[in-house]
Amino acid sequence: MRDTDNPRLLALTSSALLLPAYTPVANADAPPEVAEAGIRYSKYQEDDLSRNKVILGSNERYDIDIYQAHLLTPIADDWSFALDVQREHMSGASPWFVGETADGGAAVFMSGASISDTRTYVGTTTRYYMPRGNAGLQLGYSDEDDYRSKSIGLDGAWNNSDNSRTWSGAVSYADDDISPTQGTIPTNVEDEQKDTASAWFGMTQILSQTALVRLGLSYSVSNGYLSDPYKLLDQRPDRRSRTTASASWRKFLIAPDAALHIDYRYYSDNWDIDSHTLRGEWHQTLGRFSLVPYVRYYSQSEADFFSVIADPAQRYFSDDYRLSSFGAVTLGARLVASMNNWRVTVAGERYRSDNSWSLYGGEEAPALVDFWRATLALDYRFE
Amino acid sequence: MPFRTEHRFKAMGGPCTVFIDSHTPLHTSVLLGLEAEIGRLEQKYSRYRTDSLLSTINAAAGQPAPIAIDPETAGLCAYLDQLYQQSRGRFDATSGILRRAWDFRSGTVPAASAVEALLPLIDWPSVEWDDHGIRLPRPGMELDLGGLVKEYAVDCGIRYLAEQGVQHALLDMAGDLAALGPQGDGLPWSVAITHPRSPGSSCATLPMTNLRLASSGDYERCMIIDGVRYSHHLNPTTGLPVRGLIAASVQGEQCMVAGSVATVAMLAPDRESALTWLRESGLPWCAVDSELQVHGPLGTPDTRASAGK
């Protein structure tokens, strides 16, 4: 917007900036003014598999109830503290392995209908605010019957002098213990470990009074036991490195009092999976309400060791549908109502996936998932 | 963002309005502090107050000893010097003395000799100033910050609000205005540029987040004698009213810089040199010429602005 190469403007601006009125204001990046708390309930429900895709076991899949609580509060002048607690209850069946049907096709042996698990997560974020940016420390602990994860992360954001550009970055590390329950499904492992290190770097640039763009690049590497212990035929490499590049564009539209968000993400890993994600959101303000319909398209290629029916003669093999080639479409909307100190959010989305919607070639895994998700959230500001 | 505060007050001879969006009801001390900050500048730089620093400097014109100044005033002098150079003398902070000849309330054109007698007193380069003091070398010389201080006050007011933790505000001082952040809901503030011949209508509407907009026009003060409109913008070399633009608005990150660019455009002797100055300024602008044609990237190009009424 400003022509920084213009010598006349530069002379006037540089001269003006020597005045005390134009020195940067301390703590422009300010901690929250008041405490906020919220609770959220989500229901995630996978569609039943069609009968002809199941050889043995229930065709009912996962059903997850998710309860979340969030608290964010300022502490002292330059600090904030956030606490997140989440409890998930999961029940249903999952694909155990894929076998051949009588007519030569592929179908699923299910794990049986009695899997039930509860996961608890507790996370904290302590953040410090500086005149031109902020830095945060995250600690997380997640526990369930067969899985325990500890994580630590550091992140920071830095604004340039006129706040038109923000640089941000993060590093994190997670250490996970896997001890599968020897229940309905026999598993091959008893106690395994993995660790993941990640780094993220991003830049947000204000393009004009009504538009901004955000670019991001991330890299993570996991080492250890990366197979799924509840799948019979699953043996994956013990190292996975992932690279993601993303671009987001935000545009305010004054006349309709709305905003358009377009996000694109490219992902690639050393298991030969590439993916593209394209998401569009329309944020419409209607008085005290805000309505956000969105659509998302996702497509990935298959892992190099994936096959519809796994071949244990190979060094690495898996029939996990999540490693197959597919395309997926999500349609959703959320409605947010704000009243005094309260905010109510109602959201719902439908996800469908299909091998034929993929941008990549590859055979169809029989257990591709479709699901519904609904969310109800209530937030309060203490004033 | 449940609270919007709207506050109106008078400062520097004009109406001021401030809008502030906040999560909690705004503390009155913020509004009082804003008025006090702007009042501080009025107290210091007004030529209407005999006890102002400016009046003290002018009263000592021709005296051998300089008047002591603070870093803020020295900073403004450095800026005025830069503005004099960049405008090639068109903006001269000592030209306010021409008001002695041009009384815009009298309805009469002054005698040429009266104007010419004042010209030797218009000489910014002869002003002696440094970080600690300023001296006007000739008796009768006057320093006038009228073309600058309101815009500077807008910037100081916005800085004061930012220091108080305000994140969403719009401050309008009689047409020179500034947006601090977007509105509380994240959308930009919407600002209209008033049409110079039809105060009720606008020639452009602009979205503004963290931006300043300064406007200058001959509708502020002028006189019409025998159908000829005499602008209050006077050429410091000839002492005569200029006949270039009737209004100019400039957007920028400092209201003071945007305001100086707009004022220098108004001081241009003719339309073409005014438009060239604006085009070369490096800032977004719009201008209305004497035929009511709107120019510039902020206006609506190639449309004849209607005088309305």
Automatic annotation (TrEMBL), chain A:
What's a Pfam family this protein contains?
Answer: DUF3570
Name this protein carries in UniProt:
DUF3570 domain-containing protein
UniProtKB/TrEMBL annotation, chain B:
How and how many cofactors are bound, per the record note?
A: Magnesium. Can also use manganese.
Report the Gene3D superfamilies cross-referenced here.
Answer: ApbE-like domains (3.10.520.10)
- Keyword list, A-Z: FAD, Flavoprotein, Magnesium, Metal-binding, Transferase
The GO molecular function terms of this record are: metal ion binding; transferase activity
- Reactions accelerated catalytically: L-threonyl-[protein] + FAD = FMN-L-threonyl-[protein] + AMP + H(+)
Enzyme class, UniProt record, top EC level: transferase
Q: Which cofactor does it need?
A: Mg(2+); Mn(2+)
Name the InterPro entries on file: ApbE, ApbE-like_sf
| Pfam hit, one | ApbE
Q: Where does Mg(2+) bind?
A: 147, 263
Q: Which PANTHER family match?
A: FAD:PROTEIN FMN TRANSFERASE, THIAMINE BIOSYNTHESIS LIPOPROTEIN APBE
Tell me the protein family, please.
Answer: Belongs to the ApbE family.
Designated name of the protein: FAD:protein FMN transferase
Say which species the protein is native to. Halioglobus japonicus
The organism's taxonomic lineage, starting at the top: Bacteria, Pseudomonadati, Pseudomonadota, Gammaproteobacteria, Cellvibrionales
